[in-house]
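Researcher: Quick sanity check before group meeting.
Model: Go ahead. Protein one:
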Amino acid sequence: MKLPAVAIAAAFCCGIALGLWAPVVHFGVSSSLLICGFALVFALIACGIAAVVAQRLVVSAVSAMFCWLLLGVLAAGIAKQPLPPDHILRLVEEHRIDLHSPLRWRGLLRDEPSVLPWGVAYDIDLIGVEAAGEFVPARGGLRLSYSLRPEQPAAPDLHAGDEISVLTQARRPQVFRNEGAFDRRAYLAAQNIELTASLRAASLLDLVRPWPVTAASLLARLRRRLREQLDKLFGDTPQVAGVLRAMLLGDRSFIDRDEAKDFQKTGVFHVLVLAGLHVGALAVVLFWAGRRMRLSPGWTILLILTSLALYIAVVEQRPPVLRAGLMAAAVVVGGFFYRRLELLNSAALAAILLLVARPPALRDSSFQLSFVAIGCIGGLALPWLARTAQPYARAMRGWRDVTRDAAHEPRAAQFRIDLRRSLHWISSKSPRRLGVSIENAFAAVLRLGFRSWELFVLTLVLQIGMLPLMARDFHRITLAGPLVNLIAVPLTGLIVPLGFIAVTSSLFVAAVGRLLSVPLQWLTVFILHSIAWFAHFPSASYRIPGPRTWLMLAFFVVAILLAFALRATARWQRRATPALTCALLVCTGLVAWFPFSPQWSPGKLEATILDVGQGDAIFVVSPQGQSLLIDGGGAFRGFPGHPEHGGTDPGEDAISPYLWSRGFQKIDVVALTHAHQDHLGGLTAILENFRVGRLWIGREAISPALARLEEFARAKHIPIEHERRGQTFSWSGTEAAFFWPGASSDEIASTAKNNDSLVFRLRYGNRTILLPGDAEKDAERTMLADDAGEELRADVLKVGHHGSKNSTMPDFLAAVRPQMAIISAGEENPYGHPSPALLARLQDAGVSVYRTDRDGAVRVVTDGESLTVSCFVACPALTTREALRQTQSPNDEQQHEQQ
């Protein structure tokens, strides 16, 4: 198997992986190490040349592989060099820039302003910032958003390259610090965006000076013009315009959450992500146009390469598009020299070029998915098809011409003979005038069947080969993907070229663009309705925890060995292919089924207060594995007038990934303390993603959001139970008692209130945990009066109402007497939680304080005697994340007092 580029790319990737994750180069590579490294590289090159001269090819190959391995390590080390002194993150870390107050930022617009459903967004390359009365030079990226409302003035007319000044308070991007959660900061940092900010008024954004027109600014203006033309052509059908923005220009801003979920459920989200399908469709149309215009091969290649380069420059320049463009260019150029390039070699060359430009791209999910996809096609699907269906599909070309039979392999030649004989017999039994037409019709149907089978096999192999990464990153198994792709892929191949022809022609002749937009709209509506129809089948897809690391390694090792076997001699194919295919299917079943037990601490009670921003979510596991989720976060309500385009969903983006990271697929009970958005907003995703046994609710309230949640629970056949004061439950030695709401909770409240929160305590052995929801001083006062504070005593207190000054009042705190308190609040939230007054009360009482806005998820584990606390970020005053805090049991405290 001659795949030199694949071997080189594999060695280079292994070197980058070592450089990115090895602690030796954790902080980059010094200049002396670089010199030594490159000296070793030259030594390996000299060794390889000497081996070639001595005809020691094995030694030469080994030297070359070690050389590329070392180059990968050095590339990763160079990429991990410390930030420059004037980088904005370096300035923030050194406290030279304070992000806690509005500052005046100056920079250059990286691109044209992005029109969004709710306003406008600007990507700014920073020049500096005015802080403490002086201008501090700074570099980095700032994403500025401006939400447009009817009463607000429009944003100023700015263009790419303009130097601007804006007064705003910038922040680090929001990130949920829980196991398994998506790292949005790293995702934006890969796009050179380190800070985000909101523009409160258009008057705070000023144009300092327009920038001279450059090639980059012209491309940006062309991109903006194409988006505007799409909006004009499909102004009456915004859904179609939003999908075409994604399919043609890579702008998914106008795809709402439910629509995107349908594409994910059916396994065709790649239709919305510019990649090989889109680039390939354009390349085929350009090649066809060159042939129609009777251009010479040289001019045809020039047309294809120029058009593809312009296309990539106009749309988003991300790994899938760049990979597809580089591979298309390699194939086109190879065709000029009458060379049929190996697909895997072309992909490997593209990977090397992309990784040389940016080594950290290796750990990007997009990069991994792109090249695993092409590896599945080139390594598994095409070799298998080449030995099964493809010879017969090629035999259909000119099937009437007997002289071509000898050009095909024996089985394909025999197929052509049998085909002619069969169709001749059919036509002989038909009317004479229809004989040829019937033959052509049967041949066309047969040709379509072969192509459909090839497409089905390609999509099936892609679904299987990408399954581990899709389960790891998106936690979804799609069963309908191969079938839906039979519709989506051909339609995308038509929509993409037709869309570009319609949009570009409308720039010059509006009537032509409007005429072409009619069939384009029909095709887009058809694909949308088809996807929506398949997505509504409950069994079309399901959610799953990410596979174990050892299982992913085993899967890809078996897949690589199978790819080698499919390209080996016939003897090795007969011996190895069946066994490796069975092994791959077993690994696929383990990934898709996930028969593994969740991770929990047998014999111990644990409670994890998750970081969900400004909200609450607590996950409790009993000593025998019963699970309870209390609240689901979800404070963000969406943009003004566009709730469907809301921001992050803590249920989907924070809580579900955490549970999946621990292998949970079922939750015995989901409890809602009260019907405020920051507690129930994420629960819909939880009910959809997991098998839920019961839904507990405290006091009923007139709330549309609560009504929708209960309706969704009933649709999922989840029993709804109402809990109130005096009720209890017991789970494998864990006793729970509800203290609130009281008897008046039988009445439906007119609105949801903090003081209607579920309040209950968990007891295991001699240890207790009190969970008061958002209960404030009125509810606390009533509970104290009823219980005299005796039943409220707890070792661990989850502080009420995110640390508000109106909760955890002195009397209540004195009654509970906690040893530790945990506050769930959003980082730099606008409410000032936790309140300084509350923190002072806790400090005066000698209570150890943990906070999700500072420490991330806080996990408390007890065996009934000792307490163990760990944080996602290092806990306060502790040196490691898994540091332990051992406390005395109450019996030990009493003995100590008596002595």
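Researcher: Fine. The other one?
Model: Protein two, sequence then structure:
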Amino acid sequence: MTTGENTGPETRADLTQCDREPIHLLGHIQPFGCLIAVTADWLVAHASQNAEGFTGLPAEQIIGKPLVDIIRPEAVEALRDRLQVLTDNDRTERMGRIEIDGSGRLLDATLFVVNRHIIIELEPAASESEIEATLRQVRSSIAHLQRANTLNKLLDTGAQQVKTLTGFDRVMIYKFLPNGSGEVVAEARESSLEPFLGLRYPASDIPKQARALYVKNFIRLIADVDAVPVEITPPTTPEGEPLDLSMSGLRSVSPVHIEYLRNMGVAASMSISIVRDGELWGLCACHNMSPKLLSSSMRNAAETFGQMFSLMLEARQRDEALRDEERAQALHVRILSLVANTGSSSTQLQRLSADFQDLINCDGLAICMDGAVMLDGSTPSMDQMTDLIRFLNTGTAGDVLALNSIKATYERGGAFAFSAAGLLAIPISRSPRDYLIFFRREIMRAVNWAGDPNKPATLDASGNLRLSLRKSFETYRELVSGHCEPWNESEIRLARALRVTLLEVVLKLADAAEHERQRAHEKQEILISELNHRVRNLLGLVRGLIRQTKNSNYTIEMFTDVHDHRIQALARAHDQITAPNWNPTSLRVLIRKECAAYLADREHRLHVDGTDVLLEPESFATIALVVHELVTNSAKYGALSNDVGSVSMNIQTTHQDHVELTWTEQGGPTVTPPERRGFGSTIIERSIPFQLEGHAVVDFRPEGLHARFTIPLRHVAVAAANEDDPTPEKPASSSDAPDPATVAPGKVLVVEDNVIIAMDAEHLLLSVGATEVVLASHIADARTAIREHSFDFALLDVNLGSETSIPIANELSELGVPFIFVTGYGDQIELPDELRHTVRMGKPFHSKMIVDAITKAKEHEKR
């Protein structure tokens, strides 16, 4: 590359020696400074051979002497004081402009501690005016950095400001890539120099041990590649160990790296480490075509600028990460709003395909969920996806997988490299594996290497393997195929954030589905228990009616007729209380329905006044039987048996603890008290007191029957609205029959898991104009039917055993097919928000209900 130090001159087959050379133990320094190493008691242990030019004494004469005998005591005291500031062995401390020999010459000193030695490096000091100018320039350069509001601008500005500050001919920002190689991402240069921007350098250009030193020592200057290194004497300690120069700013350079720089035409170089989160992110590499010595104060200023640049780089990258997080959060909210409250996650995720591709740039997308695969854009084929998913399943499920070349790790990937060369796979479940996979097409691109990276070594004349340094740095172009545009850090970060969102959605949907199944199961159990209870009570009541009616002196025909009417009265009462889901029901409506069913053209002669009340379901059947007996007795023997008589019924709610009903007949035949009580009279007189703990008083007045009943308030829900008497329902006539031409449901899908109900629905739909009815009992059958047919309408039973028809409803919504839900739970069934306005039809249903429901559903679809 440009600044990394290469290894020794020759090696045999093991090229990794490049990474093992102890470049911190070379035993020499560069000649622009002097090095003195002292012991803990400040005796000189080592000195560079050029010590005489700085101390006035040869190196051999100062070894073993106290430092205070060599330089001024005031200077030694200042150095000892400054040493107290050092808190870390991997750091240096600097002192500017000190005088050590009484000559008036000022030197800059750098101190650091390594092993058992205190190292002092001395260099000529810069003038005060030069230092002031340098400080002004640093402040200006940092101000320029602060105005760079994007990462790319920061990189370009950083390179330009280092060139302005230091005066080097070329300054490059060099970024390390995950594979150890590096790329020049910004450059400032003299116009006469060829550009290096965009060039790649192999990892071997900067060995591992050199990278480790860059993290410890942030700045490294090679002032003159032709300068003769100065030896340190003695070369080793008494224990035979060479002096560790890891923190030295004067440390000499590996001969191979000197050759490397000469091949580039570089006479001087400097590097400034760019460290992010304690790791080497890259380097600011400086080249000069002639020797260039920067003073210690200038290098300090460049190091400070580099540290500020590193902090700003980290801030810009954090800004980008924050923007990525905001984008991911916005999509997180959108996904949850569209998916989390719906039934089919895979279908809803497919709707978000464009949002995913806006978040992460790609050429194609695959959504693999619940065993189904949905493809969008440039992707492998469906068959190829099946094998690819199996390959992905062999990896870990804990993180996203980014592959710039699928075929590099999955051999079959070469078959579809043109349409999908790379992938970014996001696992969104554990078992079974579900994925959201982004694909990128193959790009045929040229990687520009600074020399051939594939020829690092050659055989010399003796047959030894020798590192072959590049004699020319002309660009070597390597054509790369079967690769996509690499996935960058931001995209991988966004993928990880998206994975968290999708895992939350999948878990929430799974919980919602399980909760819905559990609720359906619980409701089914409650319904079965309730139905069992009601049927037993009803059968017991019917049995009692039969036995009591049997005791009357009726003929077979009379017995059948009376029994039939009483059973019908019970049926009408149960119809009224079950139609609104076993809720309180109007007493006035009960009376009118009984009149309409039994009196026919005489019903207008029964008048009901007073305030209506809503009776609780438990009391409804009892009062229905009492009203039935009153009406039938009046029609047979009382006021309604002739052409002029009338009946009035008053509902009084002014009492605090009960409701009072008064039945008054007039205008009929003269009434005499019966000699015997029949079953009908028994029902009238005893049902309310016995069943409801109320009271009943029956007075057989000559002018007409008068009866008064009191019903405790606990059998009354609330007072009904004061409205005019509702018009009683009339039996359906031929004119009320639905007109198939106005309904015309066309081809209809019926999703129902009960074969009898499904066949009944089929019969009713055909009777109201359906051209064809397709039956399906499960979700899988329904999806097959949707693929094979084009439907005009659908009836969906909400609960299908262990499934619900919600996913089918979502698919029909996407296709624009109107549908209604059929349920035995009425309006109590809970549906997702987007389906809660769907028309519902309760069970059991008849043709008129179907006609009304279809009409409402089609009107809703138009809106």
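Researcher: One line on it for the slide.
Model: Residues 326 and 533 are 57 Å apart (CA to CA).
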